[in-house]
Write a structure and sequence with these properties.
The chain is an alpha+beta fold. It has eleven helices and 23 strands. α1 packs parallel to α3, α6 packs parallel to α10 and α8 packs across α9. The longest helix is centred in the middle third of the chain and has 15 residues.
């Protein structure tokens, strides 16, 4: 049988580059994971399952040709092989690393399988995967994660995710890699932890992005998470460049070439190094997972298709230090919000993608759960009046040391959104999305990444009607916006919660992921935390747990 593999050969051969497994310091409570050696130094992965198929992925180091065999079996010993594809290849020169991908077909719905590749008689690590179910589904367990910055710390949260019993699916909501150079974002401790990135410079070419993905895939905790369950993945901005939109990015500057070429390079490397079904244009739109008669999950693309450039405060109509009690200033800010932030033509998803969500949710109107996976926080979050909330000593320090932060604190007196890169910068389209959900199933549960903080929000439209609830996952390692502010005794989450009706819970300190358990009667979200990312040893905990049920008046939320 001919092997049906999407494969990139000679990924690094032209420059003679090869990679070794990442070496990491041991921790006090958990032994150092054994690094992979031999040809399979980057582990295995599976992804984008449907009811009868799943994508399988691996990479081979020092690929000199020979026999390649993908196998998928009903048992971990591979005595009952369900799917097998093989090929023999001969090369003139060997490849430093080759990636391999195939789609295992003819599988049974809702069934767990084991898979591997055998290369010239050498077996890869064994991974576990699972197809999506059909019909009645008594329970479905999903992990939701995002934002794994390699130099910021160890991927302990991925290791804890891998320990989840009976895991059906991992939904990764983006920032799987970061594009920065070795002295860039959150890299202060990288050298001490032996987590300096490769390449050392900021990513731009295909080879740059492929090398960064290859580095990440050597991490033993990430390998364990990939091997534990199939992943449904979507990118956010850092897979290309910070604060990306459809035609540019904040971190794409003059002299870095055409932005469209950079996006192409990054997306090609992303698909080469991950278990994805590749759209013809490398980007596509929504990904939809039908979870039997229990739920429909729609994952959106919110960076490269339709998104307008994120707003900033360069158009703020008054001086930062203007009098907040002056009616003229208040009117100017209100008009700015109406004419700039609330502009009807500003898009994040676009009309076509909202239509796809409406169609999917409409077809799922009789299911208990309609789930939406996105990148940025959807809930309405206003910046609280920090001038009133913060103590004088902290305001004095900020005013003398950080002009940008001080300007933000001053503007917070004027009822401004907390984050214009999130849905609060695309208000009119958010209302159009809410209208589409209301007309197609009536409600939803949304999941978000990007913010590096845990969120529990209620989703309310402009008329005060609840559309559903939102659970935002914290990061695997990336620091939160407030984490580095030296403010002992100051709880920014309390300040934000107290200043926002729709914010129920905010945790800006812990790293981890969300463990979601779906049943016909309830959806539970457990905010799983790890005690540290600065050493290998860690303890797992729970920040909070939430249960959503359906009552007489719609969805109801309780802390458990």
């Amino acid at each position: 049988m001919s092997i049906r593999i999407t494969r990139r050969g000679a990924l690094f051969g032209a420059s003679g580059l090869a990679f070794a497994a990442a070496a990491c310091s041991s921790g006090p409570r958990r032994p150092e994971p054994e690094p992979q050696t031999g040809p399979f130094r980057h582990g295995v992965a599976s992804g984008e399952p449907d009811q009868n198929s799943v994508v399988l992925w691996t990479a081979i180091t020092d690929d000199a040709g020979g026999e390649y065999v993908f196998q998928l079996a009903a048992d971990e010993t591979f005595e009952s092989v369900i799917f097998e594809e093989r090929e023999e290849r001969t090369y003139v020169t060997s490849n430093a690393i080759s990636t391999f991908k195939t789609i295992a077909t003819g599988l049974q719905p809702g069934t767990a399988y084991f898979y591997r590749m055998v290369f010239n008689g050498i077996s890869s690590p064994v991974g576990r995967t699972k197809t999506l179910p059909v019909g009645a589904v008594p329970r479905f367990i999903m992990a939701v994660c995002s934002c794994s910055n390699y130099p910021a710390g160890y991927f302990n949260a991925y290791r804890e995710l891998a320990n989840t019993p009976d895991l059906d699916l991992v939904m990764h909501l983006g920032d799987y890699i970061y594009e920065y150079s070795a002295d860039g974002y959150a890299s202060d401790d990288a050298e001490n932890m032996d987590r300096v990135v490769d390449p050392l410079h900021e990513l731009n070419s295909y080879g740059d992005y492929a090398r960064r993905h290859a580095l990440y895939k050597t991490d033993p905790d990430l390998q364990a998470a990939h091997a534990a369950a199939p992943w449904l993945m979507i990118w956010d901005d850092h897979e290309v460049a910070n604060d990306a939109w459809s035609t540019g990015a904040e971190n794409h500057n003059e002299g870095e070439g055409e932005y469209s070429q950079r996006v192409y390079n990054a997306m090609l490397a992303y698909h080469d190094w991950n278990p994805t079904r590749e759209p013809a244009d490398q980007i596509g739109m929504t990904r939809i997972a039908e979870i039997g008669d229990l739920a429909t999950l729609v994952v959106t693309e919110s960076r490269h298709v339709a998104r307008h450039q994120p707003m900033d405060f360069s158009t703020f109509p008054i001086a930062d230090d203007a009098d907040p009690d002056d009616p003229a200033n208040q009117q100017a800010v209100a008009e700015w919000r109406a004419t700039e932030i609330n502009r009807d033509d500003r898009e994040l998803l676009g009309t076509e993608q909202i239509g796809q969500i409406a169609d999917a949710f409409g077809a799922a109107a009789d299911k208990p759960w309609r789930l939406l996976g996105g990148q940025v926080v959807m809930g309405r979050i206003e910046a609280p009046n920090m001038i009133e909330a913060l103590p004088g000593w902290l305001k004095f320090i900020v005013s003398k040391t950080d002009d940008l932060a001080w300007g933000y604190l001053q503007r917070s007196q004027f009822n401004i959104p907390l984050n214009l890169d999130a849905w609060d910068g695309y208000v009119a389209e958010r209302e159009r999305l809410y209208d589409a959900v209301r007309a197609n199933g009536g409600d939803m549960i949304a999941f978000a990444g990007d913010s590096h903080t845990f969120w529990t929000n209620q989703l309310m439209d402009d008329e005060g009607r609840r559309i559903g609830y939102e659970f935002g996952t914290t990061s695997i390692t990336s620091p939160s916006p407030f984490e580095r502010i030296p403010a002992p005794g100051i709880s920014f989450p309390d300040i934000i919660e107290n200043g926002n009706r729709d914010v129920i819970r905010l945790n800006d300190r812990d790293k981890g992921f969300i463990r979601v358990t779906l049943t016909p009667d309830a959806m539970e979200s457990d905010f799983v935390t790890v005690s540290t990312i600065k050493r290998r040893g860690y303890s797992a905990g729970s920040d909070s747990r939430w249960r959503v049920t359906r009552g007489a008046n719609g969805l109801e939320l309780d802390a458990i």
